[in-house]
Amino acid sequence: MSLKALTYLVVGMSFALYIGIALWSRAKNTGDFYIAGKGVSPIANGMATAADWMSAASFISMAGLIAFLGYDGSVYLMGWTGGYVLLALLLAPYLRKFGKFTVPEFIGERYYSKAARVVAVICLIFISFTYVAGQMRGVGIVFSRFLEVNVTVGLIVGMAVVFTYAVLGGMKGITYTQVAQYCVLIFAYTVPAVFIAIQLTGNPVPQLAFGSEVLGTGSTLLDKLDDIVTSLGFTQYTTGTKSKIDVFCITMALMVGTAGLPHVIVRFFTVPKVKDARISAGYALLFIAILYTAAPAVGAMARLNLIHTVQPGDVGAADGNLEYANRPGWFDTWQQTGLVTFDDKNGDGRIQYYNDRNANFALQAERFGWQGNELEVDRDIMVLANPEIAGLPDWVIALVAAGGIAAALSTAAGLLLVISAAVSHDLVKGIIRPSMSDKHELLVGRIAAAFAILVAGYLGFDPPGWVAQVVAFAFGLAAASLFPAILLGIFFKRINKQGAIAGMLAGLVFTYGYIEFFKGLFLKWAGAPWGENLASNWLFGISPEGIGVVGMGINFAVATGVSLFFPPPPAAVQKMVEDIRVPTSREAAA
C-alpha cells in the first residue's frame, strides 16, 4: 500500500472514530453543550485536558522551534508546563467551586457588572481566535503534505470534522473525542521518537537518548549538535542568544497566559466535584509530561538528521554538500508544499546550508564560491518530516499525520466551543435576552459554533507566524487581560468593577497593539536599519512573545489604582469572594 493510501486510511479511521463518538455523546441540553453535564470522570477529564492543551503548537511546532533555537526554545517548555501547574493549584479549584459555565460569567458576577462580562467576552474572542489561527495552520500543513491536497481543501475538511463533533456534541462530545485524540497524538509522537532514538543512540527512551552518545561518534547528542551547528556558522545549540529579560518575560507570559486560557479553565467545570478538579489536574499534568519531556530529544534528533541529510560529507567543507540531483524523496515532497525551499545561488547544483548572517563564516563560505544560504526549512515541518528523514516505515509516517491533525483539531474544538459559549451564554442569554429558553440557547450556541468555525478556517489561511509563535501571542493576550481579572477576583476583595474593566482593556489594548506593531504594521513600513534589527527597537528588549508580562503589569496597576477611586464592592460580593476561597467542612472532608 502506498504512503498516500495508508495515510488516507489511518486519518480516515481516526475521523470516523471522532464523529462516531460525537454522535454517541450528542448534547441534549445546555449543560451537556457547555460543561458535559458535570459528569466526566477525573482520569477522562485529565486526558481531555491534556489533548485540549497540547495543541498543534505542542505536537507540530514546539520540537521544531527547539530544533532550530536550541537552548532558546526551552522557554516554551518551561512556560507551558509551569503555567499548567499555576492554573491547577492557584485558579482551577476556586473557579470550579464558583460553578458557572464560563469565565466571562465568573467575571460578570464577581464584578457585579454586565459591562465587565462583555469586556471579558471581547478579551476571550481576541485570545481564542488568535490561538485557533495557529491550529488551523497546523491542519493545513498536515493535509497539504500527507494527503497531497491543496491547503484550502485541507482546511475545509478539517472544518467539516470539527463542525460535526463540536456543533452536535458540544462539550460532552468534545470531551470524549479529546480522550481518543489524546491517545492518537501521544502514540503518534512517541513511537517515531523511540525508533529514531534507537537509530541514533541505541537507547529506546527518548528522554534518556537526549544525553546519550551518538552511535559510532564517541560524542553525546548535544555535543555532536554543538560541533555541527557551530561549524556551519550557527549559534552553539546549548547556548542561548536571547537576553535574560526576554527569556524571563516569554516564560512568564506563557505561564500566566496558560492560567488565563478560557478553553483550559472550562475543563475544570466538567467534573462532578472540586476534589475531582484537583485530581483531574494531576492526571492532566502526568499525561502532558509524556510529550513535553520527549520534545527536547525529538527536536535535537530532528536537527541532527536534517543536517546529516544535506551535509553527507564533511560539515562546512566545500565538497560536503548534497547534490540537489541526489536529494532524498522527503526533500522533494516537502519542497512541493513550499515549506522547504532551495535556491541554487551559485549554480553549482549543491545545497549550501549555513548561517550567511555570520560574518566570520561568510568569509570562509566565499572562499568556497558560496553566495549565501540556499536552504530554507519551515520550523513547523520538523516533527512531521522527522520520520521520513530518518527513513522510518510508511505506517509510522501515516500515524504522525493522524497525530498532528488530532492535536490541532482537539484544541480547535475546545476554543471554538468557548467562543460559542461566550456568544450564546454570555452575550445573548446573559445580556441581550435573559428570558431565552434552554432549547433556544442551545440552538444559538450551535449557530455561534458554526460561525466561529468559518472564521477560524479563514484565519488559518494567513496566520501571523509559525504555529507556536501564533499560540504564544494568544498566551500573551490571555496573560494581559483575563488572568489578572481572575486572580484579583479570587484573592482581592477590594477590586471593584471599574478597576477590573479598566485593567482588562488597558492590558489587552497595549499587548495587542505591541504585537500588531512589531509583527504587522512595523514590518510593512519599516526599512533598514529598523526593519533588519527589530530586537533593538523592542521595549526593554522584550519580544512580542513576552510582552504579555508588561501588559499584565499594566492590568494589575490600572485595576488596583482605578479601584481606589471608586467605592468597594458590595458586601454580598465580598462575602462571595470569601466563600470561594474558604472550603466548607463538607468540601474539606471530600
Describe the structure.
This protein has helices spanning 3-24, 30-35, 42-53, 56-69, 74-98, 103-110, 114-146, 151-167, 170-201, 206-209, 221-231, 244-259, 262-265, 274-292, 295-310, 329-336, 359-367, 382-389, 394-432, 438-461, 467-480, 482-491, 497-525, 548-564, 571-581, 585-589, and strands spanning 340-342, 375-377. The chain has 590 residues and is an all-alpha fold. The chain has a two-stranded antiparallel sheet with strand order 1-2. α21 (467-480) packs antiparallel against α23 and α22 crosses α24. The radius of gyration is 24 Å and the shape is globular. The relative contact order is 0.17.
SSE blueprint and pairings:
Layout: H1 3-24, H2 30-35, H3 42-53, H4 56-69, H5 74-98, H6 103-110, H7 114-146, H8 151-167, H9 170-201, H10 206-209, H11 221-231, H12 244-259, H13 262-265, H14 274-292, H15 295-310, H16 329-336, E1 340-342, H17 359-367, E2 375-377, H18 382-389, H19 394-432, H20 438-461, H21 467-480, H22 482-491, H23 497-525, H24 548-564, H25 571-581, H26 585-589
Antiparallel strand pairs: 1-2
Q: What is the CATH C-level name of the domain at 3-302 and 387-473?
A: Mainly Alpha
Going by CATH, the homologous superfamily of the domain at 3-302 and 387-473 would be: Sodium/glucose cotransporter
Mean pLDDT: 80
Distance linking N and C termini: 55 Å
Report low-confidence residues grouped into runs of 5 or more.
521-532, 585-590
For the sheet with most strands, the description reads: 2 strands, antiparallel
Under CATH, the topology of the domain at 3-302 and 387-473 is which? Answer: Sodium/glucose cotransporter
